[in-house]
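Note to self: keep these together.
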Amino acid sequence: MMLLRKEILINILVILFVASVGNCSKIDNIRINIDLTEDNLAIFNVTINYLEDVEMSDFYTLAKIENIHVFKGNEEINCSLEELPLGTSIVCKNIFAKNITYTFSATNLIESGKRLHIFSYQFPITTLMNRLEILIKIPLGAVIADEASLEYTGLKPFYPENGVKGSDGRRIFVEWNFENPRLGEAIRVSAIYEKILKEEDNISLIYLTTIIIVVFSFAIIFLIISRKRKDISKVLPILNDAERVIMEVILESPEVLDQRKIVRATGFSKAKVSRVLKDLEERGLIKREKVGRATKVKLTFGKEEKDEEKVI
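Structure:
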């Protein structure tokens, strides 16, 4: 009964407000995106697209609002606030523009229980428009409540029920499209959601994922090096000391190695390293390739052996 009285009062105030405003410019569409945050804040982004350039634009909201900014394209403009018996009107004059965007944050629009959170809001239609689009995006780590959890409450996961539920890959949203809404009516939308992951759980999950990726990467590198060692172990005994030292350096690198790094790692002279690498290349153990002014060295013994096995 209290809710019904409140809706009747809102409708009366909307009608009075419509009768009092002077801006009757026809609107093509209004797009309202509402971003619900972890700390129960609702951040509004309202874009109004008029059919032609207008001198004045206004947006009426029933909520208590703060952090108000209005943009004409990319340019922020100064507007005034008009406090009304129920709600606030943002009025922008001398704008001469076709597209206006209002952004603001609102509190006290989300009712939070032990498990469920309910966002509900009424959008008063104060001017003629072709289409009204509303999108509510719930917090990260939250899901829309299922009907089973709302049994016996008389509530629905979202209202109106013709809303479309979707996801941007990270967060869930519900979207509605209203064609030619009636002047003077108040369109009510609501969404009920529950948090399945807390913010600290999200951070822990990120850390865990990072650790798994690092461990997996090290495991891959270890397998590559181990396989190289297994393949080359057949020829290591027949190599001389200098060849064995250089081969050990090559084995430690999972990627193609710069010849200058071999010089630094072994302490051998450039000439000695070059001579040993030439001998190893002639025996089919490694391959050298000129890349600009550098010489790249890669192991070929294991790969060539496997290729021969495939051919057989």
